[in-house]
Amino acid sequence: MKKLITTLKNIWKIKELRTRILFTLGMLLVFRLGSYVVLPGVIPSVLESASQNNSTPNDLLGLINVFTGGAFNNAAVFALGIMPYITASIIIQLLGFAVPYFQRLQQKEGESGRKKLNQITRLLTVAITLVQGGGYLTYINSLGAIDPTIPMGVFWISNIIILATGTVFAMWLGERITDRGIGNGVSLLITVGIIARLPQSIVFEFQSQLENNGLLVFVLEMAVLFAVVMAVVLIVQGVRRIPIQFAKRMVGRGANAMPAAGVRDYIPLKVNASGVMPIIFAQALMFLPATIAQFVTSGGGDVAANPVLRALNDFTSAPYNIIYFILVVLFTYVYTALLVNPQQYAEYLKRQNAFIPGIKPGKPTADFIDAVTTRITLPGSVFLGMIAIMPAFAAAFGVNISFAMFFGGTSLLILVAVVLDTLQQIESHLLMRRYDGLVKSGRIQGRSRVQGIGANM
Predict the structure, then answer these.
(1) Residue 150 dihedral angles phi and psi, to the nearest 5°
(2) What are residue 244's phi and psi, to 5 degrees?
(3) 235-407: same fold as 18-213?
(4) What angle do CA 363, 364, 365 make, to 5 degrees?
(5) What is the CB neighbour count within 10 angstroms for residue 334?
(6) At what angle do helices 409-436 and 15-34 cross, to 10 degrees?
(7) Which residues pair with 245 in a beta bridge?
């Protein structure tokens, strides 16, 4: 605890870091306030009763509501949140793998290409928001939550513009946090929406267990949650280091330059290179059967009347989790194959006059890296699949559904990844501050273990 307090004091002493953290907190506060500003013409009481009567919180709408921190069910100006921007970014990223023009922008045109991609992503975000905004207002209308005294034309046009503006403003907040704050802004906006529901879920679970004299069960649930979080941290941070050796490197300059052979380094291959994307893709596919059924059923047809559709719409059922697990494993392999290019690694090593000990340069090196990537992807994909279905196991053991969602799935992976990324950026500021203080003024500021950490980097 003493080291933690000392670290917090050191963070507060660094003016630049303190300013960035306060700026980030201010932007996140603005985003959270916008989650409670209801669209004009919407009746909040009808929305509240509809959300309380919803018995399927694990559908697509429930997932969007989790990512927006409850703004979706509140019909707020940030009801769509940053999700259209995430969708546009994924589309642009996938186009970079398939379309030569986008591939050239990503890999060969440097900063100018990145700016063009950002501009295309923003325009695509606006287009997606306009489409999703119309669908969202249709959903609000189906709930009967629109004030009948307001003309429908005025309601639709004005609120579609407001929803699009809210998404663009949220995108702007994320970019400002990335530029002037700490951490990745877009990821932090999603994270703060997820965290906003965590205290309420914990309190509700505690009250439920207390009423059933299950205080010990609640303690065990928290212990299991802690263990799951630690396991996710390990898999997110886990890498397989492939040692590389430089054939010749010149040390010194001019007449004193000498070749230094045998200098070693390594290529870090992440165990989970695909991140959270396989779960997002698999979850989107799992939502399709129930969504299609809602359109094809006629008359009094209901999803619950079909046992197959009922099982595929119940995230606690065995068929749902088996298919979900298999999809996550498959998408992990597919997305890792798109992200990790062994041929590029082999070409880079050849240009740097480096090689993997015992492996010939060129195609043998690419084949070796591909084989290693395939081997480490297997345990990574299986673990990712287990994390994806963990909420079902938690719900099967009696955990409340809203709290069970934090035992795995997309929410937990996003939380862990974003928190680790933010902490690493704070750590980098502390390391740089110590270096500047040592050179310029001789005063050491930052953490006392900086030397040991820096030596391992």
Answers:
(1) -95, 130
(2) -130, 155
(3) yes
(4) 90
(5) 14
(6) 160
(7) 264, 355
Cβ-contact 292, 269 below 8 angstroms: no
Residue 43 has pLDDT above 50, yes or no: yes
Distance CA 266, CA 277 (A): 26
Which value, in Å, is the radius of gyration of the alpha carbons in the chain?
25
Helices 363-396 and 318-339, axial angle in degrees (round to 10)? 150
Report the amino acid identity of residue 411.
Answer: S
In angstroms, rounded to a whole number, what is the distance separating the alpha carbons of residues 119 and 103?
A: 16
Please report, for the chain, the start and end positions of each structural domain, with discontinuous segments joined by +: 18-213, 235-407
Contact between 282 and 256 under an 8 Å Cβ cutoff? The reply is no
Give me the CATH code for the 18-213 domain, please.
1.10.3370.10
DSSP-derived secondary structure for 162-219: HHHHHHHHHHHHHHHHHHHSSS-HHHHHHHHHHHHHHHHHHHHHHHHHHHTT-HHHHH
How many residues belong to the chain?
457
What are the tens digits of pLDDT across the range 399-419?
A: 887 788 788 777 788 888 888
Domain 235-407: CATH superfamily, name plus number: SecY subunit domain (1.10.3370.10)
Q: pLDDT per residue over 196-226, tens digit each?
A: 888 888 888 888 888 877 788 888 889 988 9
- Check: CB of residue 83 under 8 Å from CB of residue 64: yes
Least confident range of 100-109, 182-191, 270-279, 362-371 = 100-109
Question: What does the block give as tokens for 171?
Answer: 């995108």
What DSSP assignment string belongs to 51-112?
HHH---TTSHHHHHHHHTTTHHHHTBTTSSTTHHHHHHHHHHHHHHHH-HHHHHHHHTSHHH
Other beta carbons within 10 angstroms of residue 271's beta carbon come to 20
Place of tokens 């879920």: 201
DSSP letter assigned to residue 42: B
CA separation for the pair 417, 394 (Å, rounded): 22
Q: How far is Cα 237 from Cα 64, in angstroms, rounded to an integer?
A: 27
Question: Residue by residue, what is the 3-state secondary structure of 232-301?
Answer: HHHHHHCEEEEEEEECCCEECCHHHCEECCCEEEEEEEECCCCCCHHHHHHHHHHHHHHHHHHHHCCCCC
Say how many C-beta atoms besides its own lie within 10 A of residue 230's C-beta.
10
Six token digits for residue 317:
């059922």
SS3 assignment, position 228: helix
Residue 46 in contact with residue 52, Cβ under 8 Å?
Answer: no
> What would the two tokens of residue 50 be?
């509809």
Q: Give tens-digit pLDDT for 144-161.
A: 888 888 888 888 999 999
DSSP assignment string, 3-39: HHHHHHHHHHH-HHHHHHHHHHHHHHHHHHHHTT-BP
